[in-house]
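[step 3/7] fold_predict: job queued, chain A
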Amino acid sequence: MTLTVRAASPDDAVAIHAVHAAAFGRDAEGDLVDALVAGGHAAYSYVAVGDGTVVGHALLSRITVGGDEALALAPVGVVPEVQGNGVGSAVVRAALDAATADGARLVLVLGDPAYYSRFGFTRADEHGIETPEGWPPAHFQALLLGGAPPQGRPAYPPPFDDLPDQR
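[step 4/7] structure written:
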């Protein structure tokens, strides 16, 4: 399969929703993407296209930490048929590269440290970032992109409140 990674367009919305539904076995993550885009919270959205079909997606959304601008990486999804082939890494890397080029200072993610450490994520609490209540500190991670990172409590946009708990 030939893989191309590019910025998502509005025409990709249905395919992006389908990627997350396939990856997570439910609509919640696709609904989250739809709500974040509709609410103007999406900052960077990248898709992986294989043989003309969207097979992966990563979204960076605008959040705040201690009142300062930051980004959240969520969700990241890859259709099951191509998982384990670097598709997720490719879309995450593209989104992080775009954010870095634009001068972003901090990205947060709730996820598997074994996976996200490959991008440079480390425990958020080691950088003065509070772990949201009920979230496992080892899985709440930060990527410092440049400059002094914001510190304090993260605030996520309202669509994240509707995501079922997966902790």
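[step 5/7] annotate
Residues 87-101 form the longest helix (15 residues).
The mean pLDDT is 95.
exit 0
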